[in-house]
Amino acid sequence: MRIIWTVLLSTLFLTAGASYENGTKEAIVKIYTTAKIPNYQEPWNSSMRSSTGSGAIIEGGYILTNAHVVADQAFLEVQRYGQRKRYIAKVYAVSHQADLALLKVEDKAFFKGVKPLTFGTLPYVEQKIVVYGYPMGGNTLSATIGVVSRIEHHAYAHSGESFLAVQVDAAVNPGNSGGPALSNGKIVGVVMQLISKSQNIGYLVPVNMVKHFIEDMKDGKYDGFADLGLGTQKLENPAIRRYYGLDDNVSGKLIVKVVHNSSLAGLLQEGDILTAVDGHNVENDGTVEFRKHEFTHYQHFVDAYQMGEKVKLDIIRDKKKLQVEADLNCIADDMYLVKTTRYDTMPRYFVYGGYVFSPLTRNLIVSTNRNRLKLSYLAAKWQERDKSEVVVLLKVLASDMSRGDNDFAMWPIDKVNGEAFKNFNEFYQKMTAVKSQYIVLEDNDGVKVIIDREEAQTKQSAILKKYNIEFDKSIDLRK
Question: What global pTM score does this model have?
Answer without folding.
Answer: 0.91
